[in-house]
Automatic annotation (TrEMBL):
Its EC number is 2.7.4.25. It comes from Aquibium pacificus. Its main location: cytoplasm. It is an enzyme of class 2 (transferase). Residues 6-196 form the Cytidylate kinase domain. This is Cytidylate kinase. ATP binds at residues 10-18. It is found in: Cytoplasm. CDD domains: CMPK. One of its GO terms (molecular function) is kinase activity. HAMAP family: Cytidyl_kinase_type1 (MF_00238). Keywords: ATP-binding, Cytoplasm, Kinase, Nucleotide-binding, Transferase. It catalyses: CMP + ATP = CDP + ADP; dCMP + ATP = dCDP + ADP.
Amino acid sequence: TTPFVIAVDGPAASGKGTLSRRLATQYGLRHLDTGLSYRAVAHALLSADLSLEDEAQAVEAAREVDFAGLDPLVLSTHEVGEAASRVSVHPAVRRVLVEKQRDFARVAPGAVLDGRDIGTVVCPDADVKLYVTASPQVRAGRRHREILRLGGQAEYGAILADIERRDARDMGRADSPLRPAADSHLLDTSGMSIEAAFLAACAIVDEAL
Ligand code: C5P
């Protein structure tokens, strides 16, 4: 049987990660957070004190990325996320990581991949494509509450500015910019709970089964 693939794209803090994990559990699929692979490259460069603009070194780091060995805790920091969005503009880095992501999607019984270019570039033939979004204000509010809940400190205005800058960089780059695939289902979660978003996504997936 051919693997069943669900592509989930959307901007930073849209809730696509949580949604993707739940979909994977629900449908018995494997899950890959492709943002972590760009974060791993950024983290390798930062740790070695190398420039994020150094495409050759970034490609080396991309070749070393092993999905099984990625540590979400180490890679989840704001600094690494910012750096990831800067290394992700290098086309040669994208080529290496996209190939690995496609290999992951090819394994039975299939997978949920989340990122920025899954429906448009990585898995253009995915069985289901979701584009998950919410207004920048809603996304900043969610991230702000999450940081406070974990006992951290943050300022709403600074988070909003970060999100808007990241959106501009991810949507404005030349190679594989963030945009909905023509055949994607738009899921605007601005006024939705996580549960409501999950149920709406399941209804879309069930149509394609
Ligand atoms: O989703 P996350 O915040 O972990 O992604 C970090 C950065 O990696 C994004 O801002 C984006 O620039 C890049 N990325 C990408 N393509 C993907 C996933 C992430 O360019 N498929």
